[in-house]
Design goal:
Blueprint: E1 9-18, E2 26-31, E3 52-55, H1 65-69, E4 75-77, E5 86-88, H2 90-93, H3 100-104, E6 110-113, E7 115-117, H4 119-130, E8 138-143, H5 150-162, E9 166-171, H6 177-180, E10 189-193, H7 203-206, H8 215-228, E11 232-239, H9 247-260, E12 264-269, H10 275-280, H11 295-307, E13 311-314
Parallel strand pairs: 2-8, 8-9, 9-10, 10-11, 11-12, 12-13
Antiparallel strand pairs: 1-2, 1-7, 3-6, 4-5
Bound molecules: iron/sulfur cluster (2 copies).
Length: 320
C-alpha cells in the first residue's frame, strides 16, 4: 500500500514507558472503536469509533460559551438542582464534524476522546520513545480493537517490525479473520481475550440490546490464530464475579486453550479504575456493585488452569 494514501489512525491515547502488555518498557497505542461493549470495560472512551465529548464538571466555569457555539443545540443548561451544569445530548452530537464547543471552552472542561494521527506522527513518537526502552521494549497496539482499523494497524506493525522493533497486539478477537491474517507476519506477540465460553453471557459483551453472540466468531479466530501464528500467543481472561468465574466456565476455557495447542493464560481481576470515565462520557457503569476478586479467589482460578497443564499469570504479576 502507498503509505501516502493511508487513512490516519483513529487514536484515543498513546502511553510511553509502560511495563505492561509485552516484554520490557513499551509504547502503548490505543486505537478507537471496538466490536464488543463489555460492561466492565476500563477504557469506555475506546468503544465507539467516532470521537466523543468528555465533560469534566469540576473544571467548568459556567460561562455557557459551548452552548452558543454548538450549531446542533446538543448542549443545554441543566435546570435540575442536582447534577452537572450542562446537559449534553450524545445523540445530537453524533454527526458533528466541527467540535466547536471544545474550541469555545477555555477552561478545559470539554475535550474529545479520539483524534486522528498519521503513520508518520505515530512513528515519530515511537522513535522518540525507543531510545528509552532498553534492550527488550517495543510497541503494543491496544484499544478499542486494533484490528478494526486493519490497514493502519498492518502498515504500522510492518514498519515497526522491519525496523527490528518488538511488536504486540491486544485483541478481543471479534473481527473478520481477514482483518487479522495480514498482520501476522509482522507480529511477535498477541494477547487474545477469552471472556466467556457461555453464549448465554454474550449480551454482557455486546451490550444489552444485542441478541447476537460474538463467542463463536471469537473462538474460531482464536483457533485459527493458534494454527497460523508463529509468535507467542497469550490468552487473557478477565475475572468478572458472577459472569465468568464459575468452575464450569474456567474448566471450559482451559479445555479450549488446550485444544488450540497453546498453553498460556493471563487472568486479569475486575477493577473499577475506569468508573469515573463513564461519568465523563455521560454513560452508566453497570458493574459498579461487583466485588473485586480477592487473592484467594484468583489463586483458586489460577489453580484450575495450572492443574490442567496451562501456565497461568495473575494480574500484572507476569514475567513480561
Ligand atoms: S464553555 Fe466550557 S467552561 Fe464554559 S460552560 Fe461550556 S463546558 Fe463550561
Ligand atoms: S461536539 Fe459538536 S454537536 Fe456535540 S456539543 Fe460539541 S459542537 Fe455540539
Amino acid at each position: 500500500m502507498d503509505q501516502s494514501q493511508l487513512i490516519p489512525g483513529r487514536i484515543f491515547d498513546v502511553q510511553g514507558f509502560s511495563v505492561h502488555d509485552g516484554p520490557g518498557c513499551r509504547t502503548l497505542i490505543f486505537l478507537k472503536g471496538c466490536s464488543l461493549k463489555c460492561d466492565w470495560c476500563s477504557n469506555p472512551e475506546g468503544i465507539n469509533h467516532t470521537n466523543e465529548l468528555i465533560y469534566k464538571t469540576i473544571k467548568c466555569s459556567h460561562d455557557n460559551l459551548c452552548i452558543a457555539a454548538c450549531e446542533y443545540s446538543a448542549i443545554t443548561a441543566n435546570s435540575d438542582e442536582e447534577g452537572s451544569w450542562l446537559k449534553i445530548s450524545r445523540f445530537a452530537c453524533t454527526s458533528c464534524e466541527t467540535y466547536s464547543c471544545v474550541s469555545a471552552c477555555h477552561s478545559g472542561a470539554l475535550s474529545l476522546a479520539g483524534y486522528n494521527m498519521s503513520l508518520d506522527e505515530i512513528y515519530t513518537i515511537i522513535n522518540r520513545d525507543r531510545q528509552y526502552w532498553g534492550s527488550q521494549g517495543g510497541i503494543t497496539l491496544t484499544g478499542g480493537e486494533p484490528f478494526l482499523q486493519p490497514d493502519f494497524t498492518v502498515t504500522l506493525l510492518k514498519q515497526c517490525y522491519n525496523a527490528y522493533i518488538h511488536t504486540a497486539v491486544e485483541t478481543c478477537g471479534n473481527v473478520p479473520w481477514g482483518n487479522i491474517e495480514p498482520a501476522l507476519p509482522f507480529l511477535d506477540w498477541i494477547f487474545f481475550d477469552l471472556k466467556t465460553m457461555d453464549p448465554k453471557n454474550s449480551h454482557h459483551l455486546t451490550g444489552y440490546a444485542s441478541k447476537v453472540s460474538a463467542i463463536p466468531n471469537i473462538l474460531d479466530n482464536a483457533s485459527r490464530l493458534a494454527q497460523n501464528f508463529h509468535g507467542r500467543l497469550i490468552f487473557r481472561m478477565p475475572v468478572i464475579p458472577g459472569f465468568n468465574d464459575t468452575e464450569e466456565n474456567i474448566v471450559q476455557t482451559a479445555y479450549f486453550i488446550k485444544s488450540t495447542g497453546r498453553c498460556e493464560v493471563n487472568i486479569l481481576p475486575l477493577h473499577h479504575l475506569g468508573r469515573e470515565k463513564y461519568n465523563l462520557l455521560g454513560r452508566k457503569y453497570y458493574t459498579d456493585e461487583l466485588k473485586i476478586p480477592d487473592k484467594n479467589h484468583l489463586l483458586w482460578v489460577s489453580g484450575i488452569f495450572i492443574s490442567m497443564g496451562i501456565k497461568c499469570y495473575t494480574g500484572s504479576e507476569t514475567p513480561f
